[in-house]
Each structure stands twice: as C-alpha cells, then as structure tokens.
Amino acid sequence: MRGILLAGGTGSRLWPITRGVSKQLVPIFDKPMVYYPLCTLVMAGIREILVITAPEDREQFVRLLGDGSQFGLRLEYAVQEHPGGVAQSFLIGERFIDGGPVALVLGDNIFYGPGLGRQLAMRHRPTGARIFAYPVADPHEYGVVEFDETGRVLSIEEKPARPRSRYVVPGLYFYDSRVVDIAQELKPSDRGELEITAVNEAYRRAGELSVTVLARGTAWLDTGNVESMMQAAEFVRVMEARQGLKIGCLEETVWRAGLIDDDGLRRLAEPLLRSGYGQYLLRLLDGLPGPV
Questions:
Q1: pLDDT (tens digit, 9 = 90+) per residue, 64-104?
Q2: Domain 2-127+173-208+219-260 -> CATH class
Q3: For the whole model, what pTM was predicted?
Q4: How far apart, in whole angstroms, are the C-alpha atoms of residue 12 and residue 120?
C-alpha cells in the first residue's frame, strides 16, 4: 500500500501565520506539523508516500524532507493548484497510486495512543474502504459516522444538524484500488470541492465501507485553527515532559520500524545536537525505551 499526505490548502483559518509558510510546516511544540502524520503512515507500514502541497510550498517541503531516503522512505511530491477538496488527492495522485490500494492522511491531523501502530498495521490492506471513528463531546462540526456492532457503517454525514452518533471520522482513510475511479465520478459539492465524505458514501452504498473505533486512550488532534494548534502543542509538550519520550519523532519512528539502522539514526542526529533534539536521538542508541 502507498500513502498520500495532503498538505495543500491556504491555511486561511491560521492567517496571518500561514501567509508566509505552509500550515503543515508550522511547529507543533518541537517538530514541524508534517512529522506527525508522516509518522502515522509509517506506523501503518507504509513506505512510499506522496506529499501534496500548494504550489508555492513545494520547495519548502523538499528542503525539509528530501526524497525520504535518509528516513528509509520514498517520498514524491505533487501540487494542488487550488483547494479542490480532500478527494481531489486521488486525482492528483493517480499516477502515484498506480492501480493499488492507498492510505490518505490529512497533514494537520495528529494521532497518538497506546498500540496505535499495531492497530493501524492490522487494517492497512482493506477490501473496499476503511475509516476510523473517534468519540467527541460535540460532533456537529465533523463528519459523523453511525455504525452497528459489527462495524458496518449505517450512515455518514458531514456536519449534520442532528448527529446520529457521537463518533466522528478523523483524517485517516484506507482504500482499495477503486478509489480513483470513484473520485473521478464525483461532482463538486456546494463548496465547489470534491468531498471525502462523498467517496466514503459511495463505498457505503456498495456495502464496502467498514469502520474501526480508535482504542480508548488514543488522542486525535485536528490542528485546523489557532486554538486547536496551541492545544496540540501543549499536549505534546506535557506528554514528552512526563514520559521523556517524543511524540511524532520521524527519525525515531523509522528507526524503530527498522527502516534505518543505528548508523543512520546517528547521521540524522548529529546536525541536530544544538537544539537538543539530536541529543534525544543519540540517547535512543543508549537504550532509551520506546512505545510498543
């Protein structure tokens, strides 16, 4: 399975911060935002990733991440000329997907929790489509999913006035090879965008949309506005200070996944020693325990 990380858009809800820099390059505590969704894809067992950016931001992502070889990954880049909706990712990435299954993660979504990697890796080869469900106190502002005890999706609605459940759909999706054909058949919504909910609804009507409830204790953070971005940064700061372990550390994630060896981790750490981030990476080589 290949992965798409959508890091396009204008970031208008974060202006003026994002007038000069992509939202997904803004720091969430001690790392650029894009590190977190990249780690999510890596934990799901995905090694080939297409990063979709706004045209003016592409070179900044390339400067940060390169071709991914230093992380044991293969990264490619494409541009979203204008914000055309999340489902537009599949049209932009059609050549990259190359007729296979694909995972899509939104570049401003952060996932963290015990056993999250195992849970994702078990689900990353779907028949049909698989989405995830996360309980929230106020589901009105999200895509809401209703499902039965077997995980069969009964309904999925975008920002409903009367939600049928308190479970919402975070920005992580797994699809089989038909997703490109489905995206090609979509009509723009009233917002003029190709909606990801419409893709999921097409799979639901075919009886091929499944849902997995994220385990209790999993944190899902959507950093779409200033307040939620600051809450996410504080969450990461507090958890790292308590545990002495980093969240969303791309270098550690690929090393623990076996994509780079000890020498590779050391090479990544050495240019970062002055910030303290590199010192953390070197401590990993001394046996600092990590998440399981």
A1: 999 999 999 999 999 999 888 999 999 999 999 999 999 99
A2: alpha beta
A3: 0.92
A4: 31
